[in-house]
Specification:
The complex is a heterodimer of chains A (377) and B (82). Chain A is of the alpha+beta class. Chain A has twelve helices and eight strands. Chain A has an eight-stranded antiparallel β-sheet with strand order 4-3-2-1-5-6-7-8, with helices on one face. In chain A, helix 1 (3-35) runs antiparallel to helix 4 (128-137) and helix 7 (200-214) packs across helix 10. Helix content of chain B is 79%, strand content 0%. In chain B, helix 2 packs antiparallel against helix 3. The chains are: A alpha+beta (377), B mainly alpha (82).
Chain lengths: 377, 82
C-alpha cells in the first residue's frame, strides 16, 4: 500500500470518526445503563412490584383487563394491549383520546394479568432509564432525531471499515497484543488498534443494528402500505365499527388457529398497526429466535372470525432480529456483562481516537514525519 | 513471497477473534442453556484478551520496570517491545 493510499484512508478514517464521535460517545454512555434497564428500574423503584401468587394462577379474561384500564383512564379508549416480554403476568394497556392519537398523547397502564388490578402508569414520569432511552434513541427529537443518529451510525461504520483497511500497514511489525509503553502517543495508538480490532465484529453488529433500528418507523409504514393493506383489502370502504367485540374471544380464536404461538401484542381497531375493523394479534414463538419474530393475525372485531394470518416480510424480520443483536438481552446476565465490557472498550477506542487526532495536530505543527514514524514502527 | 506471508500473519489473531465473535453473537439466538454458554465463551475470550493485553500486562510491565530501577543504578534497556 503506497504512502499516498495510506494518507487517503487516514483522511477518511479521521473525518468520518471526527463527525460522529461525540454522538457515538453519547450513544455508548447512554447505552451502558440501558443494557441493565430492568435491573436499574427495579433498583430505583420505578417498576411496580407484582404481587406474589401461586405459580399456576390462571390469567383473567382480557376483557376484564381492558375494563380496568378504561376505569383508570375515564373517557379514553384502548389502543394496544401487550405482555411484558420477561413477565407474562404483567400487561400494558395503552390508552388515548382516539385510536389515531400521536405517541406523545398516549398513556400506558400497567395491570396484573391474573387479577386485572392496576399496578401503575409507567411513562407518566421521566425516570432515569426513560431519560437514557430518549437520549439514546432520538435525542428527544422523534423521527428526525432517529434518522440523524442513524446517519451518525453510518459514519461510525465507515470509520470502522477505514480503520480495518489501515490495520495491516500500521500493525505489520508489531506482535499482536503489544502495547508499547514508552510514549503516551504510541501507547494510546496501540491500545486504540488492539481494542478496535478485538471488538470489531461487535462494534459492526451493534452499530449496524442500531442504524436499522432507527428505520423502524419507516419499516412499519412500509408494512402498513403493503402487507396490512393487502390483508384488509376486502374491508376497504366498509362503514366503521359500531360495537367492539370481545378481545379475549379474538385472542382465543387466534390461538386455536395458530397453535404453539403465544400472543405478545394486540392492536385495537383504528390504530396504525391494524385496520378500522380488526384486532391485530401479534404472536411469537418460544425459542430465542422466534420469540422476536412477530406473526400478525387479523380478527374481524365484529364477527370475531379470523380474517388472515401471515408471516412477516423479510424487511420486518431483519428489523425484529436487529433488536436482540443490538440490546444483548438474549443470553442472560453474563451476556449483558460482556455487552457492557465491549461498550466500555468502544468508549476507549472513541476517546483514544480523539486524543490521537489532537496529538497528531500538535505533532504535525512540529514535525511532518510523525505519520511516517508510526507507519514504519 | 515471504513478504506476503508476513502480511497475512498480521490478520491471524483478528480473524480468529472475528470468527469467534460472530459465532458467539449468533449462538445465544439459536437456543437456551448450552447455546448461551457457547455464546459466553466465544464472546468472552476476546474480552479477556482486551483486559489482559490492554490493562493487566502493561501494569505488570511498568511495575517490574520501576522495581528493577530501584535495585540498579542504570535504567533497564528500553528495547522490550513485547
Amino acid at each position: 500500500m503506497t504512502s499516498r493510499t495510506i494518507r487517503i484512508w487516514v483522511g477518511m478514517h479521521s473525518w468520518s470518526s471526527l463527525i460522529c464521535t461525540v454522538f457515538l460517545i453519547l450513544l455508548c454512555l447512554t447505552g451502558l445503563p440501558l443494557i441493565f434497564h430492568e435491573q436499574i428500574d427495579e433498583f430505583l423503584g420505578d417498576t411496580p412490584d407484582l404481587p406474589v401468587m401461586a405459580a399456576g394462577t390462571p390469567a383473567i379474561s382480557l376483557d376484564e383487563v381492558v375494563s380496568a384500564a378504561r376505569a383508570r383512564r375515564p373517557g379514553e379508549v384502548p389502543l394496544y394491549l401487550s405482555w411484558d416480554p420477561d413477565e407474562r403476568a404483567r400487561l400494558y394497556v395503552t390508552m388515548a383520546d382516539a385510536p389515531n392519537a400521536p405517541a406523545s398523547q398516549m398513556h400506558s397502564v400497567m395491570l396484573d394479568g391474573r387479577t386485572a388490578a392496576v399496578l401503575g402508569e409507567p411513562g407518566s414520569k421521566l425516570t432515569f432509564i426513560r431519560l437514557m432511552f430518549r437520549l439514546h434513541v432520538d435525542l428527544f427529537a422523534g423521527l428526525p432525531g432517529k434518522l440523524f443518529l442513524g446517519a451518525m451510525g453510518l459514519l461510525f461504520l465507515a470509520a470502522i471499515v477505514s480503520g480495518v483497511v489501515l490495520y495491516a500497514p500500521f500493525m505489520r511489525r508489531l506482535p499482536f497484543g503489544a502495547v508499547r509503553q514508552q510514549r503516551q502517543r504510541t501507547r494510546w495508538l496501540d491500545l486504540h488498534n488492539l481494542l478496535g480490532v478485538t471488538a470489531l465484529v461487535w462494534m459492526i453488529v451493534v452499530g449496524a443494528t442500531g442504524v436499522i433500528n432507527t428505520w423502524a418507523d419507516l419499516v412499519i409504514q412500509l408494512w402498513q402500505r403493503n402487507e396490512l393493506a393487502d390483508m384488509i383489502a376486502p374491508y376497504r370502504g366498509l362503514p366503521p365499527l359500531t360495537q367492539l367485540g370481545s378481545v379475549q374471544l379474538a385472542v382465543t380464536t387466534v390461538q386455536v388457529a395458530v397453535p404453539g404461538m403465544a400472543p405478545r401484542f394486540i392492536a385495537f381497531p383504528g390504530t396504525p398497526y391494524s385496520s378500522a375493523h380488526h384486532y391485530a394479534v401479534f404472536l411469537n414463538g418460544d425459542t430465542p429466535l422466534t420469540s422476536r419474530l412477530l406473526t400478525p393475525a387479523l380478527v374481524d372485531a365484529a364477527t370475531l372470525k379470523l380474517t388472515a394470518v401471515r408471516a412477516l416480510p423479510w424487511y420486518a424480520k431483519v428489523l425484529f432480529l436487529s433488536e436482540p443483536l443490538h440490546f444483548g438481552d438474549y443470553g442472560g446476565m453474563i451476556l449483558k456483562v460482556i455487552w457492557a465490557l465491549l461498550d466500555l472498550a468502544t468508549l476507549v477506542v472513541l476517546g483514544s481516537g480523539v486524543y490521537l487526532w489532537f496529538s497528531r495536530r500538535r505533532a504535525r505543527s512540529g514535525s511532518s514525519s510523525a505519520v511516517r514514524q508510526e507507519h514504519a514502527a | 513471497m515471504t513478504r506476503r506471508l508476513e502480511d497475512l500473519a498480521v490478520w491471524r489473531m483478528p480473524v480468529m477473534l472475528a470468527v469467534s465473535s460472530i459465532f458467539g453473537l449468533i449462538s445465544a439466538l439459536l437456543g437456551d442453556g448450552f447455546w448461551d454458554v457457547l455464546s459466553w465463551v466465544s464472546l468472552g475470550w476476546p474480552v479477556a484478551i482486551m483486559i489482559w493485553f490492554g490493562v493487566m500486562r502493561p501494569r505488570f510491565q511498568t511495575k517490574s520496570l520501576s522495581s528493577t530501577r530501584a535495585a540498579f543504578v542504570q535504567p533497564p534497556s528500553r528495547s522490550r517491545a513485547r
